[in-house]
Amino acid sequence: MTEAKLIKLLKIAIGIGLFLLVLGYCLLHVFYLPEKMGVSGMIIGASCIAFGLIFSLPTKMYLTFLLVMREQEKDKDKQDSDRQ
Q1: Distance between CA atoms of 61 and 39, rounded to whole angstroms?
Q2: What keywords were assigned to this record (predicted)?
Q3: 82: which of 37, 41, 65, 73 is 20 to 30 A away, CA to CA?
């Protein structure tokens, strides 16, 4: 898998994660699902938030790591070109 495809896949995972976070928040605080369904409503809303965090957090960390690596390579190339 090329780096461009991997980054696109990770961005899709971030989008899914953010969607699940917003969905869980809406279920819990906008539609008052726990009041309507009881404990089952809380479990549904909390699981949406949990899966949203699972999807979004590791991918953000990996993308940040890739960006840092690119910046270091650019700085290294710039320093090498300044020396010559």
Answers
A1: 33
A2: Membrane, Transmembrane, Transmembrane helix
A3: 65
User: What pLDDT, in 10s, does the model give residues 11-58?
Assistant: 898 899 999 999 999 999 999 989 999 999 999 999 999 999 999 888
* Domain assignments of the chain as residue spans, ordered by start: 3-83
Q: Which residues contact 22 (CB under 8 A, 6 or more apart)?
A: 52
What single letter denotes the amino acid at residue 37? M
Confidence of residue 84 (pLDDT cuts 50, 70, 90): low
Kindly report the pTM of this predicted structure. Answer: 0.75
Residue whose token pair is 């008052």: 32
Handedness of CA 48, 54, 57, 59 (dihedral sign): negative
List phi, psi (to 5°) of 56: -90, -40
